[in-house]
Inverse folding.
C-alpha cells in the first residue's frame, strides 16, 4: 500500500467515524475467509459494516472525531463494526461472538461515550430503530382502526334495519 492509498484510507475511515453513531472494536483472531465473509454479510443485512483495520492508520483516522477515545483499543489484530443505528452493529457482533469463539468484542463507542463489552451486550438486546418505528406505527394505527370500526358499526346496523324493513314489504 503506497502513501496515497494510505491517505485515502485514513480519510475514508475518518469520514466513517464522523457519520456513524456506534463503533465496536473486536479481535477477529483466526477467522477464516468464509467466516469473515459471513460476518460481513450479516452486518450488511442489518445495515451495519465490518472492516478489518490497520491499527496505525485507524488511530490516525480517529483523531478529531467523537470516537478518538477508542485509540487505546487498537493493539494486535483488530476489526471494527460500525453503524448509524446504535443497535444494528451491536446485535450482529454479539450474536456472532456468541457463535464463534475466534471473534472477541473488546469495546467500543456509542456517540461520544466509551462502552465496554457488557454495555454492548445490553445494547444488543434493545430493539433496532426499524423495530421501534414499526411498533410506533402499530400503536398509532390500532386506535384509528378501532375508531373506524366504532363509527362504521352504527351505519351497518342502520343498513340492516332498513334492509329488514325492505324485505318485510317485499314479502307482504
Amino acid at each position: 500500500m503506497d502513501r496515497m492509498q494510505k491517505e485515502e484510507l485514513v480519510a475514508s475511515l475518518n469520514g466513517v467515524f464522523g457519520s456513524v453513531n456506534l463503533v465496536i472494536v473486536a479481535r477477529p483472531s483466526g477467522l477464516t475467509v468464509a467466516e469473515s465473509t459471513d460476518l460481513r454479510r450479516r452486518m450488511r443485512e442489518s445495515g451495519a459494516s465490518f472492516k478489518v483495520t490497520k491499527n496505525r492508520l485507524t488511530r490516525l483516522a480517529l483523531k478529531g472525531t467523537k470516537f478518538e477515545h477508542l485509540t487505546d483499543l487498537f493493539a494486535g489484530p483488530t476489526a471494527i463494526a460500525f453503524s448509524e443505528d446504535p443497535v444494528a452493529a451491536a446485535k450482529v457482533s454479539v450474536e456472532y461472538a456468541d457463535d464463534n469463539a475466534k471473534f472477541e468484542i473488546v469495546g467500543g463507542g456509542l456517540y461520544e461515550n466509551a462502552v465496554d463489552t457488557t454495555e454492548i451486550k445490553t445494547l444488543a438486546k434493545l430493539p433496532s430503530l426499524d423495530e421501534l418505528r414499526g411498533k410506533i406505527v402499530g400503536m398509532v394505527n390500532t386506535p384509528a382502526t378501532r375508531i373506524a370500526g366504532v363509527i362504521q358499526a352504527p351505519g351497518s346496523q342502520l343498513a340492516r334495519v332498513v334492509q329488514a324493513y325492505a324485505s318485510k314489504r317485499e314479502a307482504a
Q: What stands out?
A: The two ends are 97 Å apart (CA to CA). The chain has two domains: 3-126, 127-172. The chain has a mean pLDDT of 84. The domain at 3-126 is CATH 3.30.70.1730 (Alpha-Beta Plaits).
